[in-house]
Write a structure and sequence with these properties.
Length: 419
């Protein structure tokens, strides 16, 4: 919500109050991902060495809450730009860090559904973020002399700070860290499950001394293939940042527009659980990435070919389905790295950082996309199809690239250790 609320704020005077012109709004979105990309790999390398990652993650949650409030305080474009860049730096700690921690607790055939549980937070933020934004923007304008869009950052940033204090006691540490809610036998069981699932390669002492996790990850073509696929996929999914803008083109006011944004994400959330459960059970990732992306293609083609308001709204439901592919692909990344935990930490961070590169470029190019691609008049159809190529190409190539990376997956041939 702290990252995406800028799109809702745009509907209520953000650009006018900060005197933004031209591509500056798109730059404001992109700069968040610049910080997000730069911090992920160093953060995960550091996280892997910590005894209490819960304290590390909770601290940065608190910091990004303060920075979100700072965006509401900004009085100029450049002030908001600095705030959003620092927000990206602080948020970069959380997502790849939690994904890595999940891989330390769950086996490969359990990880997909747990990824869906975790990633549903992003979808829930799209649902309740839109609902909360509609309420704040409708009733808080002018309170204590602040515009409604500023209150949006104040309230959501403040809630983030409160959640950070709670998360210090809620976020678990690694299975190797003694905790009150697990006995020593249960901790040993948790560690043994992962050791058996990865053929014991996490404990190859000679290998861990010989090469660092950073070197292992960056010299492995599997990691590069998967990172490239994440970048391509995320570039094609960047329409989500502009979802309120897309809905606004149907002609409703800010409150109704934000309420209409919630329903496509609710369906996407329900779909993600079904798809991830089946993906884990079947052991397949490729078709579970391709299927949701094909649904997204249907949504975009539908939006291009009609001016009917009801059908265009239906197209948003199809578009939201394509985000399910991101969760599947992220689980695929973690499943493909069987070696040391440090290598897996770097690989996950590098893949999500590559996804951030996709967001940076797409956020800039989407200015023309959202303005002229989806909901323009029929006579402009040729131009709109041409500008929509980034999505079609992205969803066509990403599953193939990821499959190339998966072909290099290590096959576990060692015997399962005795229990």
């Amino acid at each position: 919500m702290d990252r995406s609320n800028v799109a809702a704020a745009r509907l209520k005077g953000l650009e006018e109050d900060l005197h933004m012109t031209g591509q500056q709004f798109n730059t404001l979105i992109s700069v968040t991902y610049v910080g997000y990309v730069l911090m992920q790999v160093p953060s995960n390398l550091f996280l892997d060495q910590l005894r209490r990652p819960s304290a590390y993650l909770s601290f940065f949650i608190f910091v990004w809450g303060l920075l979100s409030i700072g965006t509401g305080v900004a009085t100029s474009y450049h002030g908001a730009l600095i705030s959003r860049f620092l927000l990206g730096l602080s948020e970069a700690v959380f997502y790849p860090g939690v994904v890595f921690m999940l891989s330390r607790w769950y086996k490969r055939d359990e990880l997909g559904l747990r990824m869906a549980y975790f990633s549903c937070g992003s979808t829930v933020s799209n649902i309740f973020g839109s609902l909360a934004a509609s309420g704040v923007l409708a009733i808080m304008d002018g309170k204590f002399g602040y515009s409604a869009w500023r209150w949006l950052f104040f309230i959501e940033g403040g809630l983030t700070c409160i959640i950070a204090l709670v998360s210090f006691y809620v976020i678990p540490d690694f299975p190797t860290t003694p905790v009150s809610w697990l006995t020593s036998e249960e901790r040993m069981l948790a560690q043994r499950r992962i050791t058996e699932d990865t053929c014991g390669t996490d404990h190859d002492l000679f290998k861990s001394i010989q090469r660092s996790g950073l070197a292992e990850a960056f010299t492995d073509w599997t990691v590069w293939w998967l990172a490239i696929s994440m970048a391509i996929l995320n570039a094609s999914l960047s329409f989500g940042v502009y979802f309120p803008t897309l809905a606004a083109t149907m002609g409703y006011g800010p409150t109704i527009t934000l309420l209409l944004c919630a329903h496509p994400w609710i369906l996407g959330l329900a779909t993600s659980f079904v798809v991830m459960r089946h993906s884990d059970a079947s052991g397949d990732r490729f078709w579970h990435v391709t299927g949701p992306l094909l649904m997204g293609i249907v949504g975009f083609v539908t939006a291009i070919l009609t001016m009917n308001t009801a059908v265009r709204y239906l197209s948003l439901f199809f578009m939201a389905q394509s985000t399910v592919a991101y969760v599947v692909l992220l689980a695929w990344v973690s499943n493909s790295i069987h070696e040391s935990s440090s290598k897996r930490a770097v690989a996950i961070a590098f893949a999500t950082a590559a996804a951030g590169f996709g967001n940076i470029g797409a956020s800039i190019s989407m200015a023309g996309f959202v303005g002229s691609v989806l909901f323009q008049v029929v006579h402009d159809l040729h131009l709109r199809i041409r500008d929509n190529h980034s999505y079609v190409v992205g969803v066509s190539i990403a599953p193939y690239v990821a499959q190339r990376g998966s072909r290099q997956e290590r096959v576990c041939t060692c015997p399962t250790p005795g229990v």
